[in-house]
Request: fold
Amino acid sequence: MKSKKAIVLLSAIIVFSCALRAPITGVGSLIGYISDDLSLSNMSAGMLTTIPLMAFSAVSFFIGSFSHRLGAGKVLLTGIILLFVGIILRSFANISGLFVGTAVIGLGIAVGNVLIPAVIKAFFPARIGILTSAYTTTMSVFAGISGGISVPIAKAFGWQFALLVWIILAFAALILWLPNKNLQLTNDLGIYENAEGRRP
Reply:
């Protein structure tokens, strides 16, 4: 890839990676606040942490097929949009929005989980190890940050804002991914081309 395109793609990957765990890891710390405010049962509160896992398992198998048909760039962009919309629903649409938004977030995260490693493999074959490590480390670091700052934010501004704050990462990922929306999966080896059928 040309260096400018590589930098744009790598930036999009890293920022999207930041948003792949942070929106859900902070929920566990906020369960008490959410349950008290919305009068949730223990079972309902527990579902908030299991819904994303259910979403992962439900759609992960189909993401490769969607990527092949529609193009990996468009599917990843859709994943980011789902993440963005889910965060808004979860923060502002009361109990129904809390659960629906959490499920939508899970769908968006599943897309990133499946396709980002394939994009790294396709476009950065000489740096697969270091970039995969950067991807996983970034997710872990922001997962820890989310768990650590969610309660202080909730105490200061409310649990809704503590959940909403991660929309900043989703929005940044959305903007950065737009130049990469035409990336297309062309075979099972993870080789990508642009919309004109040429490799960048």
The radius of gyration is 17 Å. The beta strands are 184-185, 192-193. The first strand starts at residue 184 and ends at 185.
